[in-house]
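How a chain folds remains the central question behind the approach discussed here. For one protein, we set the task of working out the structure tokens from the amino acid sequence alone. The sequence in question and its structure tokens are set out directly beneath this paragraph.

_____
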Amino acid sequence: ETFERAIVSERKRSQKTMISIIGGIVLVLATLGYTFRDKIVPEKEIVKILPGKDTTIIQTFSPEVIARENVDKVVFIEFGYKLIHTATGDDVYHRYTVQKNKETGKNELIALYIEVQPGVIEPFLGLKKDVEYGAPIAMSGATATGFIVDENGFILTNRHVAAAWQSYYSFPREASKGLLYRNVGGEWKIAGVVNAPYNWVPSESKFFGQKPLSGKILEGQNTYMDVTFAKTDLRTPAKVVRVSNTHDVAMIKIDLPGTLTPVKLRESEEGIAQGQKIVIMGYPGLSPDVAVAKISNDFANRQTQYLTVPDPTVTDGTIGKIIHGSSNVNREQNVDAYYSMIGDYYQLTASETGAGNSGGPVFDKDGEVIGIFSASKTSSEGARVTFAIPIKYGLELMHSQRVIR
């Protein structure tokens, strides 16, 4: 009996030990199972959609990716032009005269202007060979941006880049003021000092000398237009292919062997809205230049060349406002017509861009070009907004469209 109790007691102790071991194993497994629960049984994501509520998909926006994919498609443009007289081919000059400064007693050059009609002022123009004192109507050392739109080398940019004589002329500082000629009773007389006109377009001149113009007497001519790809130093001459007659857009072309990779163009304006994110790429003049020294191996020209290597600047922002050039009006509210003070533009919040960015692409979040950077406006307080032209005006230059039936 004692032996049997001992056996029973031993069995009970063995059972307790076994139960303790099994319990320990279960505890360890439970701990491991909880620790690695996500790998063993993936957690299910439960999404509740409330009735009557719109679901919003958050879309990614990466200026870094857009810049990386388009850096080789955004080109640097250097250009200059002069105004010529088509009948003779001679350069057109702005006439100056010599006038004694009353304070210093020294003779100074002063620009001459002419009133072509009441309130409308133009520079007093003449042929180079006939002008004793003056300055050419010309531009040099200008830079801008463009972007590849076709594998054959077609590039979109601004009209004020490809045909600058069709846009407002910027008078040199010495011509900011001048003497005004006015026709009084059939006789031209000096009528005082005036400021240079801010809105004179060379190709739209009404007078040449003291006579009204008719026909295409004055025309611009690019003295040079070179295109350089990002991070390279070799210039390629470009030629003007098409110039828009409705907006500040033009198409130029370079000829290179092989094919080029164009940007993606957004064919439709549908879905473009105020507040959407955008990316601008270009070559603003305020951005520091990078240059390289190239040693010539030409025995006939051993001079070392110092060349600027363009590297585009990337600026992000939003569409602050969509300004329509024309729009349907609500005639029920007695609105008869709609008029935009500046034309058809996207107003942007990217204020860090500037001169040199003209003609650059404006990308949407998907990396498609929706606009062409064109202009900026600064208030007297220093506030600044920028503008881009809808890409539809660039697409018009890439196709032939009938304007009448």
